[in-house]
Structure formats: structure tokens, C-alpha cells
Design a protein that fits this description.
Strands 1-3-2 form a three-stranded antiparallel beta sheet. It is mainly alpha-helical. About 80% of the residues lie in helices and about 5% in strands. The protein folds into two domains: about 80 residues, Orthogonal Bundle (Arc Repressor Mutant, subunit A), CATH 1.10.10.10; about 160 residues, Four Helix Bundle (Hemerythrin (Met), subunit A), CATH 1.20.120.530.
Length: about 260
């Protein structure tokens, strides 16, 4: 008679392992989401510098236990946004205008290099993706302007749409550069200084949004004609311009 117990035991072990992996992935995703939400609120000023974050209060607000909150706060501490103080909670440090300016200076050079490399390596399907992102950006801008002119919704519902299009635009160029080390460095930089910073500033001004669309179109044109030097300079100016706007916003907030 065939003994099924070892097989059943193996299945139970496999099932338990899969369940543990799934649970770990879900917990990590939750921690990332909590950290991202808190980061965004700190960076856009909803949670001012000097605020004390209490784990119990955050756990109640998000409807989770203290464990993922504690892990999310540790992530933010590693990124320099908060300072964990024993028995006193987490103190929001925020970012200084100097840190913002320096980060955008570095990002401008890295993204400029990505654009230069992409001009030499970009495929036709990637150019199609860029044009699709631009079309979504233009449509989101048009709806934002229309909403503002009607005096109702300020167009906030479109911010996420053109924000995603903007992210796709930059991501396609970085991937087209074909340099994994470069992409990794940019991803690290964006975790500490996300594009939400420039998105917040741009969303407040229709002229700035329009200028941003035109800057994108100039970059696409340079990539299409394989002009590496122009693509590099246009991207460098594009990112530096965004950095200047964000830095000014933080300087005004600090006054």
C-alpha cells in the first residue's frame, strides 16, 4: 500500500513556504505604500518639518498595526526625512532648499546622460511610447485647463494622469539608454527626491505645465533625429528648470 504521508507532508511544507513568501511580499508592499504616502505628505508640506509622528496615531489613521508603521518610519529615517528618537516618536526633518538644489543638480546630469545615450540607442517602439506619453500629458493638461476655466474642479483629478505620463516619459528614456548602473543610480535618487516634488509645483501653474510639455516635445524631437548633444543639453536644462522651481518653493516655505 502506498504511503501518502510523506507526500502530504511535502505538500504542506510547500504550501506553507508559498504562503510565507506571499505574506512577506504583501507586508513589504504595505510598508512601501505607507512610507511612500508619508514621504509625499512630508515633501508637499502636509506634514511640516518639526512634527512628531506617533506610531499609535499613525496605526489608527491607516488602520494597521504598529509593526508596518515602525518599518515605514525606519525607511524614512534611512532616507533622511525623519529622525527616530527613543520614547519620543519620530521627528520630521524634511528637506532643506540646499539639499533639493544639490539633488536636482545631480539628477540633471544623470538624466542628461541618459538622454544622450538614448539618442544613440532608442528603438522605434520606445519612440512610440514617448509620443504616447506626450499625448496623455497634453490631454491631461487640456482637461486641467478646462476644469480651471469652468471654476469648478481645479483639475486635481488630472494631476495623477499627467503625472503618470511624465513618469513614463522619463522612464522610457532611461531604459532606452541601456545602462543599468545609470538607471539604478537614478532610481536611488528618486526614492529620496521623488518627481512628486516637481509635480506639486507644476500643478499649481498652467503656464508652467505648458512649458513643461514644450520642453518634452523638444527632447522627443532631438531623440527622433538622433541628436545626442541636443538631447543631452535639452534634458539637462529641463531637469535644472524643475529643480529651480522646487527649490524656490522650499525657500518660500522656509521663510
Amino acid at each position: 500500500m502506498l504511503d501518502l504521508d510523506p507526500l502530504a507532508s511535502q505538500m504542506d511544507t510547500t504550501s506553507g513556504t508559498v504562503g510565507l513568501v506571499t505574506e512577506t511580499a504583501e507586508r513589504r508592499a504595505l510598508v512601501d505604500k505607507l512610507a511612500s504616502d508619508l514621504q509625499r505628505r512630508v515633501l508637499n508640506g502636509d506634514i511640516p518639518s518639526g512634527t512628531r509622528l506617533r506610531q499609535n496615531a499613525l496605526a489608527a489613521e491607516f488602520g494597521v498595526s504598529r509593526t508596518p508603521i515602525r518599518e515605514a518610519l525606519r525607511k524614512l529615517q534611512a532616507e533622511g526625512l525623519i529622525e527616530l528618537q527613543p520614547h519620543r516618536g519620530a521627528l520630521v526633518r524634511g528637506l532643506s532648499p540646499r539639499e533639493i538644489r544639490q539633488a536636482y543638480e545631480v539628477r540633471a546630469e544623470l538624466e542628461a546622460l541618459a538622454a544622450e545615450l538614448a539618442a544613440m540607442r532608442i528603438r522605434h517602439d520606445e519612440l512610440d511610447q514617448l509620443n504616447q506619453a506626450q499625448e496623455q500629458f497634453r490631454e491631461g493638461l487640456a482637461r486641467t485647463v478646462e476644469a480651471r476655466e469652468q471654476g469648478g474642479d481645479t483639475g486635481g483629478n488630472q494631476a495623477a494622469r499627467w503625472g503618470r505620463a511624465n513618469d513614463q516619459f522619463h522612464q522610457v528614456i532611461q531604459e532606452a539608454a541601456g545602462n543599468d548602473v545609470l538607471v539604478e543610480q537614478l532610481e536611488h535618487l528618486h526614492r529620496s527626491f521623488p518627481r512628486d516634488l516637481s509635480r506639486i509645483v507644476l500643478s499649481e501653474s498652467t503656464p508652467l505645465l505648458r512649458a513643461n510639455v514644450l520642453e518634452h516635445e523638444e527632447i522627443v524631437a532631438a531623440l527622433e533625429r538622433r541628436d545626442a548633444a541636443a538631447a543631452r543639453e535639452l534634458m539637462r536644462r529641463h531637469v535644472r528648470h524643475a529643480g529651480e522651481l522646487v527649490t524656490l518653493r522650499f525657500e518660500q516655505r522656509a521663510v
